[in-house]
Fold this sequence. Notes:
The structure is a single chain. This protein is α+β, with helices and mostly antiparallel strands. It has 11 helices and 27 strands. The protein folds into 3 domains: 8-279, Thrombin, subunit H; 289-375, PDZ domain (Pdz3 Domain, Roll), CATH 2.30.42; 391-481, PDZ domain (Pdz3 Domain), CATH 2.30.42.10. Helix content is 20%, strand content 33%. A 6-stranded antiparallel barrel has the order 10-11-12-15-14-13. The protein has a 6-stranded antiparallel β-barrel with strand order 3-4-5-8-7-6. Strands 16, 17, 18, 19, 20 and 21 form a 6-stranded antiparallel sheet that branches. α2 packs antiparallel against α3. 43% of the residues are buried.
Amino acid sequence: MQKKTWIAIILVSLSxxxxxxxxxxxxxxxxxxxxxxxxxxxxxxxxxTAKLTSAGGFQxxxxxxxxxxEAASHSxxxxxxxxNAQARQSDYWDFWDFFGQRGPVSSAGSGVIISDDGYIVxxxxxxxxxxxxxxxxxxxxxxxxxIIGTDPNTDLAVIKVEAKGLKAVTFTDSDKIxxxxxxxAIGNPLxxxxxxxxxxxxxxxxxxxxxxxxxxxxxFIQTDAAINPGNSGGALVNVRGxxxxxxxxxxSKTGAYSGYGFAIPANIVKKVVKDLIDYGDVQxxxxxxxxxxxxxxxxxxxxxxxxxxxxxxxxxxxxxAQQSGLREGDxxxxxxxxxxxxxxxxxxxxxxxxxGETMRLLIKRGKExxxxxxxxTNKEGTTALLKNVSIFSQPLGCNLAPLSKVERDKxxxxxxxxxxxxxxxxxxxxxxxxxxxxxxxxKRVPESVGELEKLLTQSRGKIYIDGIHPNGTxxxxxxxxx
Length: 482
């Protein structure tokens, strides 16, 4: 029997961090047309380029590559981070000195300038756990950066440098990107600054199960442009130099480029970035329904054995989905006029909304089709826009955020706190990963950050902790405190 070959999906700057260790509040008008450049359609210049390409073949296209590279390269930055946090059990890339303590760990990645006054988008995993972030521009100018906000659900983050007159990237409408279209990846792979590679869009709406969070949004653009460790957070652009997506991961057996890279679509990036800057948190949309892909088992139950659309597996009682008339067993064919033939495509459409908005769904029930409108709610089950409620705990060395109503209902928990932004402190010593949820301490559910701090720092003897990992696995830990 032939042995199976497993392809590892790798966040492309993590291995660059290991290699590097081994070798060594803005207002909402930020995103006006003047500062947040968006092109919604192919313009006349592109149509003319297409004619030239058709007439001149690959030689003309090479000229387009050069023009696109020059247009976008000045918007792509090199990001270097240093983490002084103590080692955690889940950190695969731990680097230990001879005394058993981890020294400062350096890592590297890329980022993309999105405003002329210093806002930069990158991957969450590029800056996660970083104590110091340095941004190096293409012209070699260097700046210290601070974190504006992070979103583990999409693996995106926004950082800020104090600078003016920077060249911001121009966004394109990623919904209009076609399979087979030429794209260019720009980043800093393997510590090689400002590197450009070209390829085509191989697929859209890819879910590769790499985002380790409770509400992951994965609908990647797949490309065969060469992407390597260090490209994380860099730009994927079209032949006009407009942002198609943010490079995030590669499919590889070795940790290096092996044929496929994956990028977060620009439309998702645009929405997440605006949320992080305006609210300090992403406005996660919910309708109160569980959607799954249609496989053979489900298709066999349908009247016409049709694999088109996605299947409504469950509708929560009292949810906006139920109030709109959506039922278990319905097939969603379109969302906001766009075909959705996978859960990933459906989640991409949903992720573009904020609480209070409505989403149009074309559904099929039996053999009849109809359109319904569903009101989007937040994680508390209301239509309000929520601010970040995370609090930094100095004694514990991390940010703590109380579980939302949606999270409590989903987990069946009375309460709890989600851990993030882990630094040196009690949580790091205990080895909990970023995103870990503390449900109870010694069977007591803390009602406030202060109570949780007391339970973890003042208790003596054996401490029992009931918690949940980012992937949803329930875990129980015990520690001795003297």
